[in-house]
Design brief:
This protein has helices at residues 15-31, 44-47, 50-53, 55-79, 96-106, 121-127, 130-137, and strands spanning 6-10, 34-41, 87-93, 111-115, 142-145. The longest helix is centred in the middle third of the chain and has 25 residues, at 55-79. Helix 1 links the parallel strand 1 and strand 2 (34-41). It starts with 5 loop residues before the first strand and ends in a 10-residue tail after the last strand. The mean pLDDT is 84. With 155 residues, it is of the alpha/beta class. It is globular.
Length: 155
């Protein structure tokens, strides 16, 4: 018998992530599991190369971004009426697939539920997919949810 106690939902705040959260809520309801919401803030140097050369302002910018993300996670909890579950909201900084895998190991996660993103062609070849990397390296099963071809229906 499958017994789920801890379900991780990595989120990038997209509709794909929201759809995955719907599935996670259904699983948490069925198994009485705790939900773990995680957002990974990528290294600012990837997006703002100038940030690397300007050392003092970077730390406050990262702290402000982390605080804003944490508030956004709390908003997800409120807006989706997740108060009936034990919900852990966490923010990590780094490479998304690596941080998701590390978090799953550290938190003894039983199942990761995450959305897929439709990267194709050159973007997929160059960057790969976070979801694909998590599936390949995860310490636990991963349920991937495609964009709603088949809409999730609550009973």
């Amino acid at each position: 018998m499958i017994d789920l106690h801890r379900i991780l939902v990595p989120t990038d705040f997209s509709k794909h992530s929201h759809n995955a959260l719907n599935y996670a809520v259904a699983f948490a309801d069925k198994f009485g599991a705790e939900l773990y919401l995680l957002h990974v803030v990528q290294d600012l140097a990837l997006f703002i190369p100038e940030a690397v050369s300007v050392a003092p302002p970077v730390a406050p910018a990262v702290e402000q971004m982390t605080a804003a993300v944490h508030e956004a996670l709390q908003r997800i909890v409120r807006e989706n009426d997740l108060g009936r579950f034990t919900v852990h909201c966490d923010v990590r900084e780094g490479t998304p697939f690596y941080e998701i895998i590390q978090y799953a190991k550290e938190s003894d996660i039983d199942l990761i539920i995450m959305g897929t993103h439709g990267h194709t062609g050159l973007v997929h070849v160059l960057l790969g997919s976070v979801t694909e990397k998590v599936v390949r390296k995860s310490p636990c099963p991963v349920l991937t949810i495609r964009d709603p071809e088949h809409e999730f229906v609550h009973p």
